[in-house]
Design goal:
single chain; 363 residues; mainly beta; Porin; 16-stranded antiparallel beta barrel; 1 helix; 19 strands; 7% helix
């Protein structure tokens, strides 16, 4: 009987210790929830506009229409880019650090009044799963502009992915499998590797994209492997900075300039991959603590099956007044051209000439 009592007391002590241990472990978990975003109002005046019209009018996405002469000189105002973000971070959990992000805006839909899911992803230590910026992008090399669409040479996309990040001192290696962007009948994810290194003057980044493009029309059936690469970075010059990127490769399609040139042509019996090369460079000058300006030039050259698809170029020049960190007022001039070429259906060069004014308050 005495032995049974000792065993019972020992079992009780073990259970109590385990219980207190679990409570203590739970007490060490710290969770921080934040709600943030911004309100942004845009006013645009186009003296010439061969751009998208209607859907996402306020961004330079691509030049894809021949606007009639009597339609030149139009005013556009919106607040669709305004954004909401919810982020939850937990540290000290039994499985490591956790993070969840949900973010959206109204910058979508035929009338742009539909909630647009920008980000919805979770992070578990070095693993990221969900929808967020493509690993092929370099966010640190994006210049500050009023125009949300960006320059003529841009990799700018969010998509579902699985990504693993490895810290290597001052560098990070990202390996990802992402939703196929350009394959009509996908059988494998797009594969991306990115290496980013912090430097004493800013950062440098290199990325490689591999896509398996498959298309089965019922009459034609073919596949092709497309490879592309990017090199980009930021160079700090005192308070100023230069940001740059060079992108080149096959079958970029929707990755480059929102798909203004298709990833491939299937007019023959086999897939003919597009070939694209783009570059962009931006210089930001800081006049004072509250006033700064960015000048950016970008250009993309494209061809499919030896046919020139027309060069696409753009210039952005802005002045931004930032009297208080969350508050910004700005003015930007945008000029863009998509050249007529044998490979596109343009009757003349398409152009955009725009003045963009905005006010933004973050919270």
């Amino acid at each position: 009987m005495q032995n049974n009592n000792k065993a019972n007391r020992l079992a009780l002590a073990v259970c109590t210790a385990a219980l207190f241990g679990a409570v203590a472990a739970q007490a060490e978990v710290k969770t921080e929830n934040t709600f943030s975003g911004y309100v942004k109002a845009d006013m645009l005046f186009n003296s010439e506009n061969d751009a998208t019209g209607g859907l996402r009018e306020q961004a330079l996405l691509t030049l894809n229409a021949d606007e009639a002469d009597d339609e030149e000189g139009d005013l556009y105002m919106s607040a669709w880019e305004s954004r909401l973000n919810f982020t939850s971070k937990s540290t000290g959990t039994p499985v490591g650090d956790l993070k969840a992000v949900i973010e959206g805006d109204m910058y979508s839909g035929p009338s742009q009044n539909v909630f647009n899911l920008r980000h919805a992803y979770m992070q578990h230590n070095n693993l990221t799963i969900g929808q967020t910026w493509s690993t092929f992008m370099d966010l640190g090399a994006l210049a500050e502009t009023a125009d949300f669409g960006g320059p003529a040479a841009r990799i700018f996309t969010r998509q579902p992915l699985i990504r693993y990040s490895v810290q290597m001192g001052d560098a990070t290696l990202d390996l990802a499998a992402e939703k196929p962007k350009n394959s009509a009948d996908p059988v494998m994810p797009d594969l991306v590797a990115k290496y980013t290194m912090k430097t004493s003057f800013g950062h440098l980044s290199a990325g490689v994209l591999a896509q398996q493009l498959n298309d089965d029309t019922g009459v034609k059936d073919d596949s092709a492997m497309a490879l592309a690469a990017r090199f980009s970075g930021r160079v700090n010059l005192g308070g100023d900075n230069v940001k740059f990127a060079v992108i080149s490769g096959q079958g970029l399609g929707g990755y480059m300039n929102f798909g203004d040139v298709a990833a491939y042509d299937f007019s023959g019996d086999s897939i003919e991959l597009s070939e694209q090369t783009g570059f962009k460079v931006a210089y930001q000058h800081v006049f004072t603590d509250t006033l700064r300006s960015t000048l950016r030039y970008a250009q993309t050259s494209s061809e499919i099956d030896g046919k020139d698809m027309g060069d696409f170029s753009s210039v952005h020049a802005n002045l931004i007044y930032n009297p208080y960190k969350p508050l910004s007022y700005g003015a930007e001039i945008i000029s863009a051209t998509k050249a007529k070429a044998e490979g596109n259906a343009q009757t003349e060069d398409r152009k955009l000439s725009r003045l963009h004014l905005f006010a933004k308050l973050a919270f």
